[in-house]
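User: I'm putting together notes for a lab meeting next week and I want to include a structural view of one of the chains we've been expressing. I don't have a solved structure, so I'd like a prediction I can at least talk through. The sequence is below, exactly as it appears in our construct file.
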Amino acid sequence: MGEIVFIGLGLYDEMGVSLRGLEEVKTAEATFIELYTSFMTNFSIKRFEEISGKRLQIVSRRELEEENGEVVLKAAEKGKAILLVPGDPLIATTHVSLRIRAEKLGIKTHIVNGASILSAVIGLSGLHNYKFGKSVTIPFPDETSAETPYNVIEQNRNLGLHTLCLLDIKAEEKRYMHICESLESLLNIEEKRKNGVVTMNTLVVGVARAGSTNPTVKADFVKNLLDFDFGEPPCSIIFPGKLHFMEVEALIVFAGAPETLRKDVE
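Assistant: Thanks for the context. Below is the predicted structure for the 266-residue chain, given as structure tokens.
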């Protein structure tokens, strides 16, 4: 039996992979890449192949989920197989399932971590990472779990914790949720639930293209962000809980938050 190496690509382009990850690719018999769990703004397969000297085989959601990653597992039975993943390689539960299956089959696995959207967004905002509660993905409005984000934001807020919301991506359909869409979706739920969780006067931090050379970070009330131009995706939003005075200062300096936030500090 061979092995599967799960390698994180980082967040923006082909230069985000670590030196260790690149060296692993160079010694592989088969190299696969999935590009459906996230969107890397400036990633080029051609440039990565030139850097690594390896041909990349794109694997789809169907191949990794519905077909249980058989194409990768079969390659790993013969030698060293690589699975390249945007961000950090095992944030997506799809890849955890593949790793479990490989280990049960006697195929060795190991991980080369990459920059994660989770840490990147939090770092850009200036909020304290230990004050974040459960994170959640805001789905497109046609998804059945549309009210889950509202519930998570409410639960975290009741505990004084911040909520990181990742916005839905359908990479194979070239659909990427924008911040205004996510806010409108939550406002529609608020209109029905009326719990005061997401209103026009709720503070939000919007982040677009975290990990790139030109991220956009803006903190303001919902009513002011509905028409704000964040530029190209991928996007995320944070609903702050209780704010420390240093977090308020960071939001004002890094994200152009309203000066009036200073009166609401701990």
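A couple of points you could mention at the meeting. The radius of gyration is 20 Å. The first strand starts at residue 3 and ends at 8.

User: Perfect, that's what I needed.
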